[in-house]
Amino acid sequence: MLTLASRLRALDDATLRRTIDIRMVSATGIRDFFDLAEALLEPTAIQRVLARLDRATLAVLAVAGELSQGTEVGTAAAPSLFDLAERLSELAGSPVDVAEVAGRAAELDSLMLARLTDGRFSSYPAVAAQLLTWPDLGLPTALELASTPAPAALASVDTTDTRFTDRLAAERAFAAVSSIAELVTELAREPARELSRGGLGLPDTKRLAAVMGVELEFVPSFVATAARAELIAHSDGYWNETEAGEAWLLESTARRWATLADAWHAALPPDVRGILARRPGVSWGDVLRSFVAWLYPAGGQWMDDRVTEFAEDAELIGITAHQTTSPAGASVLAGDLEAAVATMAAALPATGGAVYLQNDLSIVSPGPLAPSIDSRLRGLADVESRELALSYRITANSVNRALAAGESAESLLDFLRTVSLTGIPQPVDYLIRESAARYGRVRVGPTDPMESPAQAYVQSDDAALLSTIAVDQTLASLGLVPAEGSRLTSRFPSDVIFWALSDARYPVAAEDATHEIVHLRRHQLARVVPVDAPDPAVTLVERLRAADGGEGQAADAWLARQLDLAIKAKQTVVVSIAMPGGVVVDYLLEPASVGGGRFRARDRRADIERTLPLSSIISITPAP
To answer: What are phi and psi of 502, to 5 degrees?
Structure first.
């Protein structure tokens, strides 16, 4: 432990923080570098990191433990990399490259499981001891790690299966993109509240499931997928659309899918990504799980759960179909997103830009619409059907919503002329023009705080309409009260009043303090903000540096630690003391206490009590 403590103390702060992070060390109870070394060499801590190492790396560590028995860590007596490669070749029955051994030894060195110095490599005794317990745990020995061949190669997909997988994956990709587009759109209209214990409430889940056209149990998966791609974000207790989500809605279907696939791939744990990238066009069934179990022999349920989690998400968005990698998914796993987009674009349903306008104010698309056209139609009309062929309905309220967003009668009609295969029916033309003529008959704006305690006013030249608003029971909660100048005032902000009147289907427009019409967003976009939490590794490193008193104090602390352990175990030790004149005397002592740079002990040979300075101790060894 002294060797490791000294090594940790010599690390720079960045490397020390990295070590604490990758070894997942808890700062609890760690006061100095000896505590840290002890925590790293605890059997549970060693087993935890061994579970994340692949078979070849474990074989290097196990063989190093066998060859370095009885040698001191990091000395010239430790086995060389050539010795390791030779022994591994002997066990495996095939040549093992020294360069490969060197790379794995360097990884183990960085994990503080072993020491690599001047081409010589040895594991810490506690690590070697933990590997020796593996047979009792049902885990492989060094011989088995090095000699057990990999299971059958991951099954490749034949041409017939590839066509089937491609078709099914494209269907799933289109369904996922469509459902997530509906999710993002709906959250822009009305955010969903996140429960304090996590997850969405049942009312919001039902609402989103109905809009997305999926079963209730799939809603959390789609929410997680959208959040991973930063299309939605959790803000102030609600899930809402982000700026990225707003822009994503205007992209092509293939590009929308690429965003989801890229986020999925980026979120893959490096170990899982490494497994899948080896053979991207393969089946993910039991053969993959057998391969994972062989590759990570100590991974157990932990590794299997990781593969399962991301396999389920891969099925959801069409990376795979029936646990078989799709052609587009194979390109994603290979890191070629552009090739994946090209493959998926060829398999996805073609989008169009033409619709049928009906006399009953409905709009019907003969197939999937280009996202930009669909987005603008949603601003003008309400969605009635979300099947492959969408249908919309124009209403006075939907037109008013478009006008409030900055459209005009002419801009709406011009747009419809460009997309309609049936021209513009007279009822549609009349509704849009009549709604535009009525738009703004009711104005809502902020009051001057110097003139009124109210926050907002409602104004109209139509006294009858204003009186109707004043007695409308659906608006009673706004507390509208008559004021001078054909106005009603309220204690609520103007945007709250505006959206309440809009929902009540009044021809309302918002204006600013200068009485200019402004266009409001119903809900603010959520921002993806990194969690600014203190890094426990930084705090621990600062504490360790503050407690470090230099080489002399570190040596005394190590001696005191050994004596403390002997006191707790009531163990007799042989203490070598440097006497004046350079003479070294060995005492057989039973330590009693340590403090103030000195220690008190019972001399077992002379049967007297001695008090000796720590600075005079050369070594402490357990009594035979």
So the answer is: -65, -45
Torsional class of 272: left (φ above 0), alpha (ψ -120 to 50), beta (otherwise)? alpha
- How are beta strands 517-518 and 573-578 bridged, if at all? unpaired
Q: What is the pTM of this model?
A: 0.68
CA dist list (Å): 284 to 105, 128, 251, 260, 287 = 31, 35, 31, 20, 7
Same domain, 138 and 231: no
Task: Provide the β-strand partners of residue 357.
Answer: 363
Handedness of CA 197, 202, 203, 204 (dihedral sign): positive
Amino acid at 32: D
Secondary element (H or E) of residue 104:
helix 98-110
8-state DSSP, 589: E
75, two tokens: 């000395």
> Is 77 within a domain?
yes
CB 60 within 8 A of CB 23: no
Each residue's pLDDT tens digit, 172-220? 999 999 999 999 988 888 888 888 777 888 899 999 999 888 899 999 9
Distances from the Cα of 527 to the Cαs of 120, 222, 257, 371, 534, in angstroms? Answer: 51, 19, 22, 23, 21
3-state secondary structure at position 263:
helix
Q: Is residue 282 part of a domain?
A: yes
Rounded-to-integer distance, Cα 617 and Cα 205, Å: 70
Count CB atoms within 10 A of the CB of residue 599. Answer: 24
Return the pLDDT at 194: 86
Number of domains in the chain: 5
The answer on 364 and 258 residing in a single domain is no
Q: Which DSSP string corresponds to 371-390?
A: HHHHHHHHHHSEEEE-SSS-
Element (DSSP H or E) covering residue 320: strand 320-321
- Give the domain-ending residue among 103, 120, 147: 147
Give the pLDDT confidence of 284-340 residue by residue, as tens digits: 667 777 778 888 888 877 777 777 778 888 889 998 888 788 888 888 888 889 999
Start-end of H helices in 335-493:
337-347, 371-380, 396-404, 409-419, 426-438, 463-471
The answer to whether position 275 is within a domain reads yes
What tokens does 49 get?
Answer: 């990191």
- 257-273 burial, b at 16+ Cβ within 10 Å, e below that, comes to bbbbbebbbebbeebbb
Is there a single domain that holds both residue 124 and residue 202? no
Does the residue 2 lie in any domain? no
Helix (H, G, I), strand (E, B) or coil at 358: coil
- 195 token code pair: 């429960």
Query: What are the structure tokens assigned to 468, written together?
Result: 């109707």
Note the residue count of the chain. 624
193 beta partners: 238
Which range of residues forms the domain containing residue 481?
A: 442-518
Which residue among 438, 470, 500 closes a domain?
438
**Are 369 and 507 found together in one domain?**
no
DSSP 76-94: TTSPBHHHHHHHHHHHHTS
Residues 386 and 270 in one domain: no
